[in-house]
Amino acid sequence: MHIRIMWKLMQNVMALRRHEHWTRPQLEAHQADSLGRLREYAYAHSPFYRRFHKGLTGRPLHELPVLTKATMMEHFDELVTDRDVRLAYVREHAANDKEGKRFLNRYWLNATSGSSGRPGFFLYDEDEWLAVLASFARAHEWAGVKLSLAHRMKMASVASVSPWHMSAQVGASLKSWWMPALRLAASEPLADIVRQLNDWQPEMLVAYASIARILAEEQLSGRLRIQPHMVFTSSEVLTDETRRRVEAVWGHQPFNQYGATETADIAAEHDACRHMHIFEDLVLVEVVDEHHRPVRPGEHGSKLLVTTLFCRTQPLIRYELSDSVRLAPEAASCGLAFATLESIQGRVEDTLYLPSERGSKVAIQPLVFNRILDILPASGWQVAQEADDGLTVLVSGIRDGFSDEMLVNSLAQSLSEQGVRVPRLRVKRVPAIPKNPSGKAPLIKAYRTD
Fold this sequence. Notes:
By secondary structure, the chain is α/β, with parallel strands linked by helices.
């Protein structure tokens, strides 16, 4: 890392540390000021926002229209505030540059995987990218890993190594003498991942939640032999059982991070209370239902609307994320003024819609399956919906005490209690849970026709 960038990052991190001592009124004053400056800049430099918010420029945030990824990509050239940026050039750069170089030599380019439709592209200039890096550094600091040039820590990441994936870009930016990093593709064969981790012996392990569970099983079997001081999970729902397994083999629970390519880190667990606090000084979060109406704390929303306070190149105001989360109704005991995420159910795409006894469709959240499948004597599982709404449950690494019939009966009863007309259920024992192209082993796979 260039020493100038490192110095500016340290300044950003120190500013975020000061924010953690704010009272709630101080935080809200910062949010109001930052939002006002963001909107003023967007209206001055983005033709799209001048049209999108026409007649609403003086209205409060909750009265503004919702920005979807499809709308953003359709109007990309008008939405960005740099008139030299064109989507055609961005796509050409992403297609031809396999090393993750900066777009136009000044923008860090990130792309979503496209799991919920078409991929999206997101640009960050230097100041914005430093805010992104600082958000990840805060997540590590809240877990007890202070950003310091005096302490060297070996890190290993098992996730996506696509040059346009945010984790890869962040890893490349932070790689230095004080944080040497091994980046492994989660899609690699498991034996290769285990061998390289054994050789590297990381002090910090960062992985998809599903991969952390698999690696914990490998450690338990004796094939993996590492002793990380810290484990971080992200990008997927972290189940209670995965927490227990990681703690059982490495002596401490993993710290969970919640973020998105569009926003960087949104929330992270704090070691003082083990609650996940939202980075409300960097991003505004609205938990809403399917009609974009606000949901009260203590209830799961259908979607999340985010407004990134630090972005100017590609302003995102009330941008829709298809994540189902629940805000805690009460403040955490640690004293932080930031609101707390009580639960993350996952993406809307992880929800299964099954026929009810009355013929309508019932939304079945992942937690309905988690509470049954997560305690199986197995190393992994996955529920896959078929075209006829039947469900196939893949199970790997089965140990003693497992019965296909008992599992089917338990799932049938749970689905019946949800008002579902119980579909065809079958259990399939597999050597390993299949991964998607990015290397994740998703717990739920809804049937899609696209």
